[in-house]
């Protein structure tokens, strides 16, 4: 038997919601889970074939940019104390920017193209990747570096055979947070201006007082987030076999 | 094999550790270095490996042509320092890979040695699964695979329980005799030093100005009971009291 507590809690929560929504009986404000699911079923073609791919593309491009740029910055910061001292405050400041306020400016810069959404996604996902990877890279042991030196290792040997594997678990912790945030980022980006995407669809339905259709894409976004999270976990367990085998 | 010629060394933070120290190690010897804690044993290793440079004097190494000692000695640190994400086989391959050998070739070369080092059947295990003694074997194998005839072992058995320690000592002697390597061995355990060594270097004074060289009057192969001979018991007494006098200095 696997742990059944969390499914039970979800079922209990949905039941309460269902009950409350039926008693309240104003579907345009509070649709019930069953109504949402029915609406999702009716809209499944539009949602899954038209809007999901648009959102997914934003998320994937955004994440790729974050992974490349985030790890690059992390490696750069770990290469010297001066660079770290210069970059760290800027990095933290970048997370203080209220993204909702900034997003319209991205629309101004990039128009209603995919890039305004990608920009929002990158802005909120690169931070956990950078910080975690950096922490991972800095957790190396001096004794290990010396051992490598006594073996005649070059900097490159040390980086690829020691630093990278050491930082990998931390990198994955960061990536898991980033993946969750990427769904939020893409949705916010679409909310503020788009021609397709689950966030955009949800907002459009709002103007039509179609409560269930507002929630249906949110349901898809949630499933998407969970799915991406599990993908990362799967890859992580594959690459870090040694942790599970112990 | 290795010689220190009037070597002095001071850490940058101010500690003067070695002062005008000289000694000689012959090829094929097993030498134990004993001395009180903080006397500078590990520092001597750092100098031999090339991690630090002496502030004065000359260190010469037979395998070293152009005064570049890094990568020229096999070093086995006190903690095993195995890489947790590499299997035993992969850990042992590390020095070969660093030397530029192709991964497959390295494996082929290491594979038969695993058996010889008493590591058969652990090749695909990760270090976390192994006992302390086994991990030390891997660390020793890795030091041997650096390909250098001079091996430096810094208190390799200090973390092991008494029984494992004894069997690892015997194992080490066998390996040393078979490979005909030269070993410098740091230990706090006088019995261990007496059982293993051809000569014992006892570090004297602070900073260290000389080593007191003690020849062990035993042939090989040795057994544990050799340690109970009267001359060995006397030697042990002598070493103990010397160390004690060093502590009080
Ligand atoms: N990196 C360093 N910087 C400054 N002082 C150091 C450094 N490393 C060691 N020392 C000092 O040098 C002295 C000798 O240290 P060393 O590690 O060589 O001793 P040791 O004989 O190996 O001791 P132990 O038996 O405890 O391992 C000690 O007093 C220590 O505090
Ligand atoms: Mg020491």
Question: Can you describe what's shown?
Answer:
The complex is a heterodimer of chains A (246) and B (249). Chain A is 85% helix and 0% strand. Chain A is mostly helical. Chain A has a single domain, classed as MetI-like (MetI-like fold), CATH 1.10.3720. The radius of gyration of chain A is 22 Å and the shape is globular. Chain B is of the alpha/beta class. Chain B has two domains: 1-73 and 151-249, P-loop containing nucleotide triphosphate hydrolases (Rossmann fold, 3-Layer(aba) Sandwich), CATH 3.40.50.300; 82-147, no CATH class. Helices cover 37% and strands 22% of the residues of chain B. Chain B contains seven helices and nine strands, in the order E-E-E-H-E-E-H-H-H-E-H-E-H-E-E-H. Chain B has helices at residues 41-49, 88-98, 103-116, 132-145, 162-179, 190-196, 230-248, and strands spanning 2-10, 16-25, 30-34, 56-61, 74-76, 150-154, 182-186, 199-204, 210-215. In chain B, the strands form two sheets. Chain B has a six-stranded mixed β-sheet, with helices on both faces. Chain B has a three-stranded antiparallel β-sheet with strand order 2-1-4, with helices on one face. In chain B, helix 5 links the parallel strand 6 (150-154) and strand 7. The longest helix of chain B has 19 residues, at 230-248. Chain B starts with a strand and ends with a helix. The chains are: A mainly alpha (246), B alpha/beta (249). Chain A binds chain B through residues 141, 143-144, 146-153, 157, 161-162, 165, 168, 240, 242, 245-246, and chain B through 49-51, 70-73, 75, 77, 79, 81, 83-87, 94-95, 97-99, 126, 128-129, 146. The structure holds adenosine-5'-triphosphate and magnesium ion. The site of adenosine-5'-triphosphate has 12 residues of chain B, from helix 1.
